[in-house]
Design goal:
Oligomer: single chain
Largest sheet: none
Number of helices: 15
Distance between the termini: 29 Å
CATH architecture of the largest domain: Orthogonal Bundle
Order of helices and strands: HHHHHHHHHHHHHHH
Structural class: mainly alpha
Number of domains: 2
CATH topology of the largest domain: Triphosphoribosyl-dephospho-CoA protein
CATH class of the largest domain: Mainly Alpha
Shape: globular
Length: about 325
């Protein structure tokens, strides 16, 4: 593959992921989250749009790293996935004033970008090969990657971070221990996977993205023939089956399960395709919009973006 072809491939992958972010944040009404018709006081729709543009070059760089790895120019552990995440979060902070808009999405989408580069360099694109390459990317992460992601998390200052039982990100000694004990980013996320769905996706090869969200999104596109409906319903489907770990960290698992049950009820009423479903969705949205955002299903939104990303890479166009 020539340098020009490599750049085009990396640019293509970046645009796919940027579009996924834009479609997800624009989908409405996603209950409890910012979208094109609803803002938070301190974080607005345009902050997410700015972030999508700001992080796109980092996805292009990640894809280029994947292309290099596919040609054995670098080893998979030299991709420096942690540095990619760190620099994307830095750009997120520089290009908008709405705080942490996309930390979880950056963590989820960065391995997808690298793996897409590996996949497209070697053969015709397939979700099976993408997923296998994603597994290699995350499993060959390094302790330096873990330290870089700790920096990214501290910079983004996500709400509801709390304290971790081991290698707590807010403990300055954690980074030193990671390096001394040679703890990789994959191993750090394995610890966190018990209480964080983003980390769980990483270490379990993205089951919610590929096995739950993607087939449901594809089905909804066929039935509704509308990208907005398919996206909102996929968001609700993921939320209905998996309690949002952002909510659980802030107000407890019981409350998160209650929110999931309400999402399930909205879908059972037809969601956006019926009058009763739309009315219930509006009430659900209003209920989740507390001033502290304790009931905002932010993790579910991040996973929905990953679903859209692999869908677009696989050929979907709105």
């Amino acid at each position: 593959m020539s340098p020009r072809s490599s750049f085009k491939t990396a640019e293509y992958i970046s645009r796919c992921l940027e579009l996924a972010i834009l479609l997800e944040v624009s989908a409405y009404p996603k209950p409890g989250n910012v979208h094109r018709t609803a803002d938070f006081q301190e974080t607005r729709y345009e902050h997410f749009l700015a972030t999508a543009v700001a992080v796109a070059p980092h996805f292009r760089y990640a894809a280029a790293k994947g292309l290099l790895a596919s040609r054995s120019k670098i080893n998979s552990d030299e991709v420096r996935i942690g540095s990619i995440i760190k620099n994307a979060v830095r750009s997120m902070s520089v290009w908008q004033s709405g705080g942490n808009t996309l930390l979880g999405s950056i963590i989820l989408l960065s391995p997808i970008a690298v793996a897409a580069g590996i996949t497209l360099a070697k053969e015709k694109f397939s979700l099976a090969r993408l997923r296998e390459n994603m597994r290699v990317v995350v499993e060959t992460s390094t302790p330096i990657d873990a330290v870089d992601v700790y920096w990214a998390i501290l910079t983004a200052k996500p709400e509801g971070l709390g304290k971790a039982p081991k290698l707590d990100v807010t403990d300055p000694a954690s980074k030193r221990k990671i390096l001394e004990d040679h703890v990789t980013l994959f191993e750090v996320f394995k610890i966190a996977s018990e209480y964080d769905s983003i980390a769980s996706e990483w270490v379990n090869n993205y089951p919610l993205t590929f096995d739950l969200g993607y087939p449901y999104f594809t089905q909804q596109l066929k039935e509704a023939r509308d990208a907005n409906t398919a996206t909102v319903h996929t968001f609700l489907k993921i939320l209905s089956e998996v309690p949002d770990t952002f909510i659980a960290r802030k107000v407890g698992l019981a409350k998160a399960k209650e929110v999931s049950a309400q999402a399930r009820e909205v879908l059972e009423k037809g969601g956006l395709t019926t009058l009763s479903g739309r009315n219930l969705l509006r009430k659900f949205d209003k209920k989740l919009r507390d001033p502290a955002h304790a009931l905002s299903p932010g993790t579910t939104a991040d996973i929905t973006e990953a679903v859209l990303a692999i869908s677009i890479l696989n050929g979907y166009r709105p």
